[in-house]
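Table S5 (text form). Sequence records supplied for joint modeling of the two-component complex.
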Amino acid sequence: MTSKNNGIVETKHFTYAQPPREFKLESGRTLGPITLAYETYGQLNEDKSNAILLMHAFSGNAHAAGFHPGDKDPGWWDFMIGPGRALDTEKYFILCANVIGACRGSTGPSSVNPKTGKPYGIDFPIVTIGDMVRTQKELIDHLGIKRLHGVIGGSMGGMTALQWVASYPDSVECVIPIATTLKHSPQQIAFNEVGRQAIMADPAWNGGNYYEGPFPDKGLAVARMLGHITFMSNESMEQKFSRRLKDDNSGFKFSADFEVEGYLQYRGSSFVKRFDANSYLYITKAMDYFDLSEGKLFARGDLLNVRFLVLAFKSDWLYPSAQSQEMVKQLKMRHVDATYCEGDSTYGHDTFLIESEKEKQSHLIKHFLAKRK
Amino acid sequence: MKSAIKRLDHQAICDLIEPESKVLDLGCGNGDLLHLLVTNKSVKAQGVELNNDAIHACVEKGLSVFHSDIDSGLPYYPDQSFDYVILNQSLQEVKGVESVIREALRVGRKVIIGFPNFAHIEARILLCFGGRAPISSSLPYEWYSTPNLRFLAVKDFRDFCRQKNYKILGARYLGKRGRVFFLPNLWALQAIFVITK
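The corresponding structure-token record, covering 570 residues in total, follows.
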């Protein structure tokens, strides 16, 4: 292990809201117990003022950096986290938790309902981005952190970061929303709906009750294939695949002839191994319901003591930069300190997750976080 | 610690601005002027800049900057939210000059405009006797690669303010080595005006 990497890390779990003291969700329904899977990197300082909460994207999880024992690949933002990196573990205490509703260690539809002894399935209550944030606040409180130095995230992680500062405006100093929006447009809701319909059209979905098998892998894979198209740009697909044919193409048989088809199929089939179809339904709904537009971002505080670094990518057509600009406009109109930068990468929405594009993003984040009021 | 000032126009603008003012620099480049104003005058600074690398340089200096061109960046700011809006060496690159100045005067109480004086004697001689578009220290570009869309003189700008009913609160004229006090339309390489509505 070199000093430059994060070494072996382990996922921790925090469980609370044991019945009868269940957690009240935005919908009015209750949930308990709740478990949050989380990882931390770096050391919390004595006055607990150096914590940065990292929020994962839609299909992400708590494992943002370092390696799990036996794994070949590190966590999903490993290139951004570590000594000397943008989220410098020699300075900051980085915390990343899996959201509720998900399926990677935190309570979600695939978790066992204590009342029935079986997985919740679609008996799991609807959760919102607000609920995801409030459940994470319990974890932050549990760790004794009064104020976060920063909240940062891309895509859905950007929504949760924005929701965090909207819900707890006095508990955050810096907010870094990346490739995200104050609300989904009809186009974004539409893509999510096609994904959901693909899952529910799979007979194996069985009204959400499939945990004894078979699993709705076909539907979930199609949903993920659609997702992957929207994460890339036309230009990046041209560079990556062009119209090249696969080596084993059979020609005129509706099998995967083009490389792009093979790639999407591979992405779809590998996704079903790590993601729960019901979680897909719940989390995409939470994203669609999310709306901090028209001043709702400022409902609990004027945010005048908060600094924003808003990042977008020119080639991102899923979360077009106009949505980030609208966010910055809201901030500027209310005299909130905000920096906006539109990256010129050609990779589309996924740019923030691509290691080869890390230099510019890292530079901005590192210097932005370092500035103290 | 106060920073040493290297550029005459930066020095002049620094002299014009009261400490702790709220300042918006349109076309702030790599943030040198704003950084100077923050360290020497404790201003609350914001910038608007189009160039990606320049934005990175600004963030490195701890400045808040908005990635946009000047023409479309101003609607983002509420009325009279700045004491000063600066357009230094950027007005001549703007497409909608009238709307940008009108907008700048909406968001700021005073607007500082600095531009190269096209009627400087050196440019006149080059044009008159050289018979070619002038290339001088304040107009260093070839005709085919210049970012300047506008060529104006001190007198042009005064006429413009008179036409638009903008009040000129102050002016600084700069030559190669320092301020110019005599016949600025002939001797100034750069002019800096402070105007208000």
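Note: Chain B touches chain A at residues 52, 55-56, 58-60, 62-68, 75-78, 81 (CB under 8 Å).
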